[in-house]
Specification:
- This protein has about 60 residues and is mostly beta strands.
- It has a single domain, classed as Rubrerythrin, domain 2.
- It contains 1 helix and 5 strands; from the N terminus they run βββββα.
- Strands 3-4-5 form a 3-stranded antiparallel sheet. The chain has a two-stranded antiparallel sheet with strand order 1-2.
Length: about 60
């Protein structure tokens, strides 16, 4: 079994519905969190997830 890891929401830190493997490379993919109902643009290299941009709705909530 490979070393899989769940992608966590960068806003609420809960599990999303996406798993990544150590060799995964994805850039600028929209990640929707079923818990907080927000969308964030992320990039994944290996199993490191980096939030690239938050959507307009997230910016309204943080103000």
């Amino acid at each position: 079994m490979e070393n899989e890891k769940w992608v966590l929401c960068p806003i609420c830190n809960n599990k999303t519905r996406i798993k990544v493997h150590p060799d995964t490379v994805v850039e600028n993919i929209p990640l929707f969190c079923p818990k907080c109902k927000r969308e964030t643009i992320i990039s994944v290299t290996g199993q490191n997830v980096a939030a690239v941009k938050k959507t307009k709705d997230d910016m309204k909530v943080s103000l």
